[in-house]
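A quick aside before the break. I want you to see a complete sequence-to-structure record at least once, exactly as it would be stored in a machine-readable document. Don't worry about memorizing anything.
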Amino acid sequence: MRARRYALSAVLSCVAAMTACTAPAEFPTLDEATRRLTADAESLQLQVPVAERVTDGACVAGEVRGFVRAELDASAGPLDGSAGLLDASAGLLERLQAMGYDKIVDDLDLRDEDQDVVVLRHPRTRLTFEVTAGEGPGEGQRVVVVGKTTCYAAG
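That is the input. The structure line, written in tokens, reads:
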């Protein structure tokens, strides 16, 4: 009798633990995600305006997303004012990963002869940052950082 009681308690505890681990996460609203996107961009020491709402080809009709974009000249890196191109982009990647972003696409997937590209996504907020380092057309070395929310119904 005692063994059954403990076995039932153990089974119920396991089911509760599995349910807690597999419960769907609450994703932020568009306003919350846009505020977080702006805050994360500011944490990277990027001089960006508040994230704007845009409609782009990635969203279906009637949806919008938050969007920020910053371009950094390699001679004025975001970390200490003197970082070179690779140091600036590596520093940005390290900071994003420290903030909980996971690398989902790396340079080998998107390599261009003149540019290195890495895409990182935060699993809880579904925010995405794309960091592109390389030569711009006629502009010399630069780092471009684009942050986006997922698509939300306009409203």
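Two observations worth writing down. The chain has one domain: 27-153. Helices lie at 2-22, 30-43, 85-98, 107-110. We'll return to this after the break.
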